[in-house]
Design brief:
The protein is α/β, with parallel strands linked by helices. Helices cover about 45% and strands about 15% of the residues.
Length: about 325
């Protein structure tokens, strides 16, 4: 069963949480699982084809395939027009939200704090780990009704690509992770979400070991201090088990990541490598808010202090919930 409107309250001596989404593979039919496979594979194919769209457009013109070129230009125009989401967009979002979680062995989204949404709203930055090969946990959060008001910030090149821009605008509230854009969102009082680990964290993905790339990621903490925004660490248990990834050559691969070049070599199901592996449970924990002060010009020491506290909270979440997740 999927619980959206009726939240499950879980209390213990150590923690108080609210489960806003929970699926059980035992009650999922084969057809529902198939729809989930269609949903997640469509998300990944759109993601990858967006990166190749300039090349596809160039080849279409060179090969005089003007109908294909016209379709790409039409999609680009629609993707950049200032339209608002309507009934069609809401139907697409509902379809994805309803069917995507049913592909996996089970999905749970758990909020710490005991109240969702909170009675007193505080501007929040959701920092999501790990990135994984294709940000599957991120995608589940993106269409989750509880997160509909949150601005999900994607890599600037990905958000600029027409196919993905149109898709993301149709199913959620996307934005660019470019620094000027992030400044504008937070200055306007918006809640934002970002995977701080970026391409480096994707590169480190492993099915046998959970890894995050956070020790040198200070930028989001500096921004949150500048605008006095609370940070909620988010950990997606099971993300790394969805795709196998070639290991090793870390220095060269991480160096390429600094230039915005992804260096993952991944595969999922044997018959369709872009489909995540089956038999994986996704357990997403949204940690309690870390309340930061508002410092218009935070010093390096300020940033380092709160960055260290953030890492401590992320470690606490992992240690506290890993037995429930695995």
């Amino acid at each position: 069963l999927i619980h959206h409107k009726i939240y499950k309250m879980v209390a213990s001596k150590m923690k108080k949480t609210v489960t806003v989404l929970e699926t059980d593979s035992a009650t999922t039919t084969s057809f529902q699982s198939f729809l989930g496979a269609v949903t997640v594979s469509s998300f990944i194919v759109i993601w990858l084809s967006s990166a190749a769209s300039p090349l596809i457009l160039f080849i279409s013109f060179r090969g005089e395939h003007y109908k294909i070129a016209a379709v790409i230009l039409l999609i680009t125009t629609i993707a950049y027009l200032p339209w608002k989401r309507g009934p069609i967009s809401r139907c697409v979002q509902s379809f994805i939200d309803r069917n995507h979680p049913k592909y996996y062995d089970g999905v749970s989204i758990v909020f710490e704090g005991g109240e969702v949404p909170p009675s007193e709203h505080r501007q929040t930055f959701f920092a999501v780990h790990p990135h994984g090969a294709f940000c599957i946990g991120w995608a589940l959060l993106f269409t989750c009704p509880t997160m509909h008001g949150v601005r999900f910030c994607f890599a600037p090149t990905l958000f600029a690509s027409p196919f993905f821009r149109l898709f993301s605008r149709a199913v959620g509230k996307p934005g660019s992770a470019a620094r000027p854009s992030m400044n504008a969102y937070l200055k306007n009082g918006e809640d934002c979400a970002l995977p701080p680990g970026g391409f480096e964290e994707a590169t480190l993905t492993s099915t046998s070991q959970d890894r995050v790339f956070i020790k040198k990621r200070y930028g989001f903490v500096r921004l949150c201090l500048k605008y006095g925004v609370a940070i909620r660490p988010v950990y997606v248990f099971g993300e790394g088990k969805l795709f196998s990834n070639v290991q090793g050559f870390w220095r060269n691969r991480l160096a390429m990541n600094r230039f915005g070049i992804p260096t993952i070599i991944v595969w999922g199901r044997w018959f369709f490598p872009l489909l995540p592996k089956k038999g994986v449970k996704i357990y997403i924990v949204v940690g309690k808010p870390i309340i930061l002060p508002k410092l218009e010009n935070p010093t390096k020491e300020d940033v380092a202090t709160w960055h260290k506290k953030y890492i401590g909270e992320l470690k606490r979440i992992y240690d506290e919930y890993k037995e429930d997740a695995y």
